[in-house]
Amino acid sequence: MPYMRIAVVDDEPDLRETLKYALEQEQYVCDTYKDGQQAWFVFESRLPDLIILDVSMPVMDGLELCRKVRRISEVIPILFLSSKDDEIDRILGLEIGGDDYICKPFSVRELLVRIKVLFRRQRARMSKEAASSSYILGHLSLDTEKYLALWKDLKLDLTVTEFLLLKTLSQAPGFVKTRETLMELVYPVGTYVSSRTIDTHIKRLRKKIQKMDDTFDEIETVYGLGYRYKQISS
Prior knowledge:
Elements: E1 5-9, H1 13-25, E2 29-33, H2 36-43, E3 50-54, H3 62-72, E4 78-82, H4 87-95, E5 100-103, H5 108-131, E6 134-137, E7 140-143, E8 148-151, E9 154-155, H6 160-170, E10 177-178, H7 179-186, H8 195-212, E11 219-222, E12 226-229
Parallel strand pairs: 1-2, 1-3, 3-4, 4-5
Antiparallel strand pairs: 6-7, 7-8, 8-9, 10-12, 11-12
């Protein structure tokens, strides 16, 4: 299993280094950022698995960064840090999408426990969502038990691989999936295929849907990275 990647976004260099050391001791991968803008530049193309986020920072504060993250992901855990033991900050942080809140100064051990709880809560949520065999995203409807895909209520004649690619991309709209990630998720363990095989399947998948609807452009190519399913505007 790949190590979980945690981002620490805080304008205090000593705290960033302390948390990076502690998290790496727990076998997490840790990236640090000095402000929200620096973090957002990276998050736009790749989100971590969890974000530790200071409320008060220059350039872009934690509340604004949280709002931006929540526009592309409702599930990534966000834990707020603040030197202000203020109920207004706590409530606002949680209302805009934070999952937990801890005030400075804090125990690193307590922080690590809270991180484990957030990951456990996320896994439980994902398991519950996975139990539902069907979902709808815009004009796309998928039934993962019957391997049935509909576009604008018309049945798509897809191979199993094409269905799994469509499922993988559409379940994370706005997120880039690399060719390597798609190969790992779509093909059985131990199966070797060229990354160009993914390109071929994506091309066929697009053609099949565009044959029914020539305006279909939901599957986007992110050059140098992979593919993503277009996020639906709210």
